Amino acid sequence: MHQNGTQLSPTSTGVEVVLHVRENESVPWCAEIVSGEHYAEIGLWFNGTTLADYDGVFFLPRDVAEMLMAAGYAVPKECFA
């Protein structure tokens, strides 16, 4: 599967967040988080432009949510810690 990672905006906490989009699609399917020795991949599922589900973490990191919202996606409050 071809993937294209695009960092849409800088984070304020020194964490690198990359949203991955499949070729010929516009909705991100994965968020990759890198910070020093820490690394995580979070699967993303949307209902239209609203985040419907995610996996890989208990709560969605604020940096990922802020990047999704900056890209025009709605992130429900219950996703946050």
- What would you call the shape? globular
Radius of gyration: 12 Å
> In percent, how much strand structure appears in the residues?
35-45%
Q: Spans of 5+ residues with little confidence (pLDDT < 50)?
A: 1-9
Count of individual domains: 1
- Protein structure class: mainly beta
What percent of residues adopt helix (DSSP H or I)? 10-25%
Question: What is the CA-CA span between the terminal residues?
Answer: 32 Å
Supply the number of helical segments.
Answer: 1
Please characterize this protein's 3D structure.
The chain is mainly beta. The protein has one domain (3-79). It is 11% helix and 43% strand. It has one helix and five strands, in the order E-E-E-E-E-H. It has a five-stranded antiparallel β-sheet, covered by helices on one side. The longest helix is centred in the last third of the chain and has 9 residues, at 62-70.
List keywords for this structure.
81 residues; mainly beta; five-stranded antiparallel sheet; 1 helix; 5 strands; 43% strand; disordered N terminus
Summarize the structure.
The chain is mostly beta strands. The chain has one domain.
Give me the secondary-structure topology:
Elements (H helix, E strand, L loop, with lengths): L2 E4 L9 E7 L5 E8 L2 E10 L2 E6 L6 H9 L11
